[in-house]
Amino acid sequence: MSADDYRRVRVVRHGPVLVAGPVRIETPDGVVESDRFQVAICACGRSTTYPLCDTSHRRCRRGAP
């Protein structure tokens, strides 16, 4: 396999997991599809649009040192 055969996934520290789209995300509650060129998947569990990231991790971090 060449590097072009792999899907690009980037883990952002204290943030979401970024996946090169389009993607199909299978969860216990159902399936979420996105045709965007890049999709942010929630890694903190605070998102109101879970499994997609809504930047809730930013609000929780502001008060932290």
Automatic annotation (TrEMBL):
UniProt keyword Iron-sulfur present: yes
Keywords: 2Fe-2S, Iron, Iron-sulfur, Metal-binding
Pfam families xrefs: zf-CDGSH (PF09360)
Segments forming domain Iron-binding zinc finger CDGSH type: 20-63
Protein name: CDGSH iron-sulfur domain-containing protein
